Amino acid sequence: MKHLIVSYAIKPDLVEENARLIRAVFDELNAQSPKGLRYAALRDDNGRFVHIVEQADGAPGLEEHASFRAFQKSFGDRCSARPEVRELAIIGAYAMMQDAAEYPAAG
After folding, report:
1. Can you give the pLDDT at residue 20?
2. How far apart are CA 28 and CA 25, in angstroms?
3. What mean pLDDT is reported for the chain?
């Protein structure tokens, strides 16, 4: 299982366009219901976005969906700073990650 977090800032005049493209990704995911892929996207009032991806081994990635490829196509032009991508390990979760019980508690 892979867990990624991606954070970035968008140019002020392109924040709504970025959000529209993200909503299109959710529309496609909801229509296709890919197994083993979980995804959330959040934004703050300053044009910063955070994406959280949980992908099971062998599950399709976001890049396999046309709407995500459309989101990525002009992504660099919309960003005001280079995105930060980090792979994370779950320490614990409450009602956020379905399989969080599989991960040992920090100790």
Report:
1. 97
2. 5
3. 89
Question: Whats the size of the chain, residue-wise?
Answer: 107
Residue 107 lies in a domain: no
In a domain, 56, yes or no: yes
* Other CB atoms within 10 A of residue 15 CB: 19
What CATH number has the domain bearing residue 36? Answer: 3.30.70.100
Predicted confidence at residue 104, as pLDDT, reads 46
Range of the structural domain that residue 41 is part of: 2-102
CA-based end-to-end distance of the chain: 21
Predicted model pTM: 0.85
Question: Looking at the DSSP assignment, which residues form a beta bridge with residue 37?
Answer: 55
Region at 74 (left for phi over 0; alpha for psi -120 to 50; beta for the rest): alpha
- Bridge partners of residue 22, in order along the sequence: none
In a domain, 31, yes or no: yes
Asked if 57 and 10 touch (Cβ cutoff 8 Å), the reply is no
Look at residue 12 and tell me if it is in a domain. yes
